[in-house]
Design goal:
Number of strands: 2
Number of domains: 2
Structural class: mainly alpha
Largest sheet: 2 strands, parallel
């Protein structure tokens, strides 16, 4: 408290009295003053009119607690982690290559595979699936090759 050392006499507020009473109770629990002395000092605290009187009553017990530390500054959330996704056209290319559909699936597998590879390259790492697209392209080109072979054989007959 010690607000009286250099300034004018200040009247004690209820908050001042309660703060000193709490300091005395803590000192009693810690065994620094006897229970009888605590009762005597508490009666003096609650009848004190000046801050200087409160300072005198609690001068031989622990100093007032330090002010509470300030809350740490606001820390923003860490940036969201964006996981790469599989390109849908790469999956469609692979599925169309497997289904074949009378060579129609093979042609779609080639178209979807090239579109998927272009999108994956432009995505900057946000999309994956180049292996699926390449597998679809291989199946598609194999189907187109068999179509051309079939047309060559059928045309030659």
């Amino acid at each position: 408290m010690n607000r009286m050392s250099n300034g004018p006499a200040l009247r004690a507020s209820d908050a001042d009295r309660e703060a000193v009473a709490e300091r005395l109770r803590v000192a009693s629990v810690e065994g620094r003053i006897e229970p009888e002395e605590l009762e005597e000092r508490l009666s003096q605290v609650y009848s004190a009119r000046w801050v200087a009187d409160l300072d005198r009553i609690a001068a031989d017990v622990s100093p007032p607690p330090p002010p509470a530390p300030l809350a740490p500054p606001y820390a923003p959330y860490p940036p969201a982690v964006v996981y790469p996704t599989t390109n849908g056209l790469a999956v469609a290319s692979l599925v169309a290559g497997f289904l074949w559909l009378g060579w129609f699936g093979s042609i779609l597998a080639v178209i979807f595979g090239h579109m998927a590879l272009g999108q994956i390259n432009r995505s900057g790492g946000r999309e994956t699936g180049s292996g699926l697209a390449i597998a679809g392209l291989v199946l598609g080109y194999m189907g187109v090759a068999t179509l051309l072979l079939f047309l060559a054989v059928a045309g030659g007959l």
